[in-house]
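Can anyone check this?
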Amino acid sequence: MRARTFVGMGSNIDQPLGHVRDALLQLAALPSTRLVAESSFYASLPVGPRNQPDYVNAVAELNTALAPLVLLAHLQRIERRHGRVRIQRWGRRTLDLDLLLFDTRIISHPRLRVPHPCMHLRMFVLAPLSELDPEVLIPGKGKAGMLLDRLQRRHEPTVHKLMPPTGNRN
């Protein structure tokens, strides 16, 4: 069975735009997986420590036959290839790949929680996700576009579009 999945991407050091672009190519090359769509690239303020550069963020939509934990293992391998080292929570990073949604499944595993626990509170996730599909349902929270609208009414925008998608397709 194939699943519609969304992967969030972020980078803020060592040529972040290049890391996110390369990650899209690597996602498109995953086994039993097709890159369906990619969002524009967005700039966002860091969450957590403020003494770090702004982030480049994007979201990719995948169609995959991989199981959730197998997909997670591939995402973590891509992060390691980009030099990802987990030192400080919400600290600077070369590449961060988050499995945001896996169809409408709710997954609670020691290594993986889907939907991503804070995605409904983060403009840097909701803006690119809503660009791809504002009607996509975040289980237990609502539709991505509605959640983004709600955040934008309450808070000053913390993201802005950098550039359109690159057009990578598998």
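Reply from J.R.: I decoded it. The longest strand covers residues 55-64.
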